[in-house]
């Protein structure tokens, strides 16, 4: 079965705090692809990052970093020194090799207060 | 370059009417996807096109839903005899090909009264 779980439904932090969004996935495929998307209040899904299963190097992009751990089937997302503009719903997704679709987690709503 | 565009942005219709939603993918993207986002169900896959053919229609919830893609570009999602449970945001995405990153449009907010 292919499944993505984001256990944190809502997180609230104060500006400048670091925050980690958890993502756990299930798949029987040996090669797979994981994604993070951001959905701000405007509603559009914005692509953040793609991770291929055969590349375990962690990535940092400015204040954003991602920790991919195959051993625990996790692909967690950390925002360092959060800002109010980071307030959004964040989705983790797994690409389904047999069909082309993305399987999304339930999303984590992040609220960053000034 | 231009992103994925969708029209209309918002649609209000009466129960039982038919609606058409349009998606214009990023130029050169051969793959196109429709998803639905509703409060109780999260983000659900509806259908996937590669070129003009639809290898995966597994997410269409009933035979009232259909989609087509012509010329390998624009796609139309049609919902016949709309029901209140069809109210949702319908999202379109496109990608360069299979297994490539999907880029989403702004969505069409459908409200069935």
What does this 3D model show about the protein?
The complex is a heterodimer of chains A (114) and B (113). With 114 residues, chain A is mainly β. Chain A is built from no helices and twelve strands. Chain A starts with a strand and ends with a strand. In chain B, strand 9 and strand 10 (103-104) form a beta hairpin. By secondary structure, chain B is mainly beta. The model of chain B has no long low-confidence stretch (mean pLDDT 94). In chain B, the strands form two sheets. In chain B, strands 2, 4, 5, 6, 9, 10 and 11 form a seven-stranded mixed sheet that branches. A four-stranded antiparallel sheet of chain B has the order 1-3-8-7, with no helix packed on it. At the A-B interface, strand 5, strand 6 and strand 11 of A face strand 4, strand 5, strand 9 and strand 10 of B.
- Give a short account of the largest sheet of chain A: 6 strands, mixed
- First and last CA, distance of chain B: 37 Å
- The secondary-structure class of chain A comes to mainly beta
| Silhouette of chain A | globular
Characteristic terms for this protein:
heterodimer; A: 114 residues; mainly beta; four-stranded antiparallel beta sheet; 0% helix; B: 113 residues; seven-stranded mixed beta sheet; 11 strands; globular
Architecture blueprint of SSEs:
The complex is a heterodimer of chains A (114) and B (113).
Chain A (H helix, E strand, L loop, with lengths): L2 E3 L4 E5 L4 E3 L2 E3 L6 E7 L6 E7 L6 E3 L2 E6 L4 E6 L8 E8 L6 E3 L3 E6 L1
Parallel strand pairs in A: 2-12
Antiparallel strand pairs in A: 1-4, 3-9, 5-6, 5-10, 7-8, 8-9, 10-11, 10-12
Chain B lengths: L4 E3 L2 E4 L5 E6 L6 E8 L3 E9 L2 E4 L8 E5 L5 E5 L8 E8 L7 E2 L3 E5 L1
Parallel strand pairs in B: 2-11
Antiparallel strand pairs in B: 1-3, 3-8, 4-5, 4-9, 5-6, 7-8, 9-10, 9-11
């Amino acid at each position: 079965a292919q499944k993505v779980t984001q256990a944190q439904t809502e997180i609230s932090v104060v500006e400048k705090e670091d925050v980690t969004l958890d993502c756990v996935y299930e798949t029987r495929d040996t090669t797979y692809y994981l994604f993070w998307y951001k959905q701000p209040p405007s509603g559009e899904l914005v692509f953040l990052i793609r991770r291929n299963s055969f590349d375990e190097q962690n990535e940092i992009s400015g204040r954003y970093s991602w920790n991919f751990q195959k051993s625990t089937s996790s692909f967690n997302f950390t925002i360092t020194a959060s800002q109010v503009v980071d307030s959004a719903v964040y989705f983790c997704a797994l690409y389904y090799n047999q069909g082309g679709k993305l399987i999304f987690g339930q999303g984590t709503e992040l609220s960053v207060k000034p | 370059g231009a992103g994925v565009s969708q029209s209309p942005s918002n649609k209000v219709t009466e129960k039982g009417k038919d609606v058409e939603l349009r998606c214009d993918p990023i130029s050169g993207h051969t793959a196109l996807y429709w998803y639905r986002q509703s409060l109780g169900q999260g983000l659900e896959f509806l259908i996937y096109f590669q070129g003009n053919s639809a290898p995966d229609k597994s997410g269409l919830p009933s035979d009232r839903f259909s989609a087509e893609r012509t010329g390998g570009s624009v796609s139309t999602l049609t919902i016949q005899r709309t029901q209140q449970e069809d109210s949702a945001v319908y999202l379109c995405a496109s990608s360069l090909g299979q297994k490539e990153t999907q880029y989403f449009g702004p969505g069409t907010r459908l409200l069935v009264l």
